[in-house]
Amino acid sequence: PANGEILVAHVLVKSSADDSDESKAKAQEKIQEIYKEATNSEDFGGLAAKYSDDKASGRNRGELPLFGTGKMVSEFETAAFSLKNDGDISEPFQTQYGWHIVKRLELKPLGTYEEVVKDIQSKVARDVRSQVSTRSFVNKVKKDYGFKEKTKALAPVRALVDSTILAGNWRPGSTEAMNAWLFKVGKTKYTQNDFVQFLRATQGRTPETSVDSYVTSRYHLFVDKSAVEYEDARLEGKYEDFRLLMKEYRDGILLFELTDQKVWSKAVEDTAGLRAYYEGHMDDFMYTERLKGPVYRCKDMETANMVRAMVLAGKSNEEIDAQVNKDTQLALTIISSTLEKQEGEISGMIDFKAGVSDIHEVDGNFSFMKVEEILPPSHKPYDKIKGLVTAAYQNKLEKEWISELREKYTVEVDKDVLHSID
After folding, report:
1. DSSP annotation string for 87-137
2. What is the pLDDT of residue 142?
3. Taking the CA of residue 326 as centre, how many other CA atoms within 13 Å lie in the half-sphere pointing to its CB?
4. By the 8 A CB rule, do 101 and 40 touch?
5. How many CB atoms lie within 10 A of CB 363?
6. Which residues of the chain have pLDDT under 70?
């Protein structure tokens, strides 16, 4: 049975194989405590916002985009689809990213025929049922263009093929003299040599045991392929809308290739030019004033006041963590940070001065920062922002290319026609 699609929220506590045994144990203990709170609370989203290490989903109360089979790592997918009812919460489970708890928000079963018909058509086109419509189409092409064949001319090709073709090792030698035609579609004739080259190009290891049967099946495939290609080559002449569509595709591909040569790949491959652009525009890539020091994220105001007092008393982070998180891993998280001022974050709420900041509520936690250093505005290092530099360099190359084109070609706009669009 199809799983359909599912909407879930989750809490993540990061833990990797490279972590110390102590860190792994703390992560497991933390997820168990969050799970206990989740089963005793209706506000799963609040817990995700407060405790999840997946900050992107945490800001959305843990909610992830709708997904179906094959979109998530297998452990996550299994846990999510095992939940029987909306609102059910999984027990903690582990993936390569760490420990998770998942809450089912909504299950969307397989859609109606109208909703899934395009997907069905795509699947049918890839399996044996598509052969029915292919055969019908080939027969129509044969009829429309007066298909004729000389099956006797196939005998020399059969005589040339040996059992090595069944292993994909057949070497026919020179066959240019085999120019008698086997069949024709319209005015185009397909010769013995055409078929030999088709056999040579498409051979491969096969379970087929009869050389004669293999050649016969490949001949029919060659006829079908040739008929389809013959019709395909004439579609633009038969259908004006298709001709215009193909022209649009060709123009689009041409523009893409040109832009890739002149802008995108050029910027990536021109490492010297990229570095020179960065050095000439370093002021465009600046850090603003930044704060450096640990951020203390506490579960409630009482804990935050206690931790702040310990910081002011000069206790080390190790001492503080050992005391405050003695009985739980949810009380305190300490994060070493270098932060620019950002709205909605702790750095956007405190004064830019050295010392211990006031306590502020951020994402359901009570946080403060010990500002150990104020870093002045500085240039961002090249290796940290190469992607941004590449994008800016591409914009520069594109502007230069467009300027060259405008100098080379005259652009005239018929304003009467342009305004008639209104």
Report:
1. T-BPPPEEETTEEEEEEEEEEE-S--HHHHHHHHHHHHHTSTTHHHHHHHH
2. 94
3. 6
4. no
5. 18
6. 129-130
